[in-house]
Design goal:
By secondary structure, the chain is of the alpha+beta class. It has two domains: about 55 residues; about 220 residues, no CATH class. Helices cover about 55% and strands about 5% of the residues. A four-stranded mixed sheet has the order 1-2-4-3. Helix 7 packs across helix 9. The protein binds zinc ion (ZN). The site of zinc ion has 4 residues, from helix 6 and helix 7.
């Protein structure tokens, strides 16, 4: 009897697996499969039910959206999964689940990337991936690093300086992306490579400063990425990054910093970042234009 039962479940898993290919949905997910398998022991679950459950992503995506683990093509799949591992390792973490969201009936609805806290996962929309890739191979990696920055926030309960809107969360995620792009153990990019990518990502900034979803203005996002980029010269834990980031972004950059530097700030980092303050202030104020931003020195 036991064997029969085993075979039955095994068959179901195979069915789910082949349906997954069909629906291009790699099991959203284990839960769905587990529930379905146990449900089958009690009743006869119809295959159409699997299909329906399999196609639906969640309320953040259109009803016709579906998931896939292939990111555009084999080259991109290999690239972005390697990046996913690398980004995590730079911050001493394990990679989180990464999937692509497609929507054949409404392709532009996938112009988004979302970082989820529970369970930890990142869903990368096909439309934004393609648009990013058009600006260069580095750009999808940059977006992924930003999303992983949100994962670090979930893990370490960051940002340490919350506000009424998502602004500090978003600016810090931009900073994490800047940091990753610069780190020798990370993307190890030059500014010539990274600058135009940031410009693509941060042109998406908004000016709805009181909206809960406010991401920071484009010039704030540029300055956050550039600050993160400079911090990338130093190996920092996620929490130390957070401390340094907000020390400079919220205090030093606004000119309201104390004359004595807090103990937690490394004097070497302090001297270096302060030497870049005038530039960072000009980026933040918009005095350095988007165009000039992309052409800054390393
Ligand atoms: Zn974000």
């Amino acid at each position: 009897m036991k064997k029969t039962k085993f075979n039955r479940i095994n068959t179901i898993f195979c069915t789910v697996a082949s349906l997954s290919l069909l629906a291009a949905c790699s099991s959203n997910d284990e839960t769905t499969i587990t529930e379905s398998a146990s449900a089958l022991e009690a009743t006869d679950l119809q295959i159409t039910d699997f299909n329906a459950q399999c196609s639906y992503v969640d309320g953040n995506w259109s009803s016709t959206a579906f998931l896939n683990t292939t990111m555009i093509n084999t080259t991109q799949t290999n690239f972005i999964y390697a990046q996913n591992n690398k980004i995590a390792s730079v911050f001493g973490q394990s990679a989180v689940t990464l999937k692509m969201v497609h929507d054949n009936s409404n392709p532009s609805s996938t112009y988004n990337a979302i970082s989820y806290s529970n369970p930890k996962k990142i869903y990368f929309g096909e439309a934004i991936y393609v648009a990013a890739l058009n600006k260069g191979q580095i750009v999808p990696a940059m977006i992924l690093a930003h999303e992983f920055g949100h994962q670090l926030q979930y893990t370490y309960n960051l940002p340490s300086k919350p506000e009424a809107t998502a602004r500090p969360n978003e600016l810090e995620a931009d900073g994490f992306a800047g940091y990753y792009m610069k780190r020798p153990t990370g993307y190890n990019a030059t500014w010539e490579q990274a600058g135009p990518g940031f410009e693509f990502a941060y042109a998406i900034g908004d000016n709805n400063t009181t909206s809960p979803g406010h991401h920071g203005t484009p010039s704030q996002r540029r300055s956050a990425a550039r600050l993160g980029w400079y911090l990338g010269d130093y190996a920092l834990s996620a929490s130390d990054f957070d401390y340094n980031f907000f020390y400079y972004y919220n205090n030093v950059l606004t000119g309201s910093y104390r004359t004595t530097t807090p103990e937690r700030i490394n004097p070497k980092i302090d001297a270096f970042i302060k030497s870049k303050m005038s530039e960072l202030q000009k980026i933040k104020s918009g005095e350095i234009s988007a165009e000039e931003f992309t052409k800054l020195q390393d």
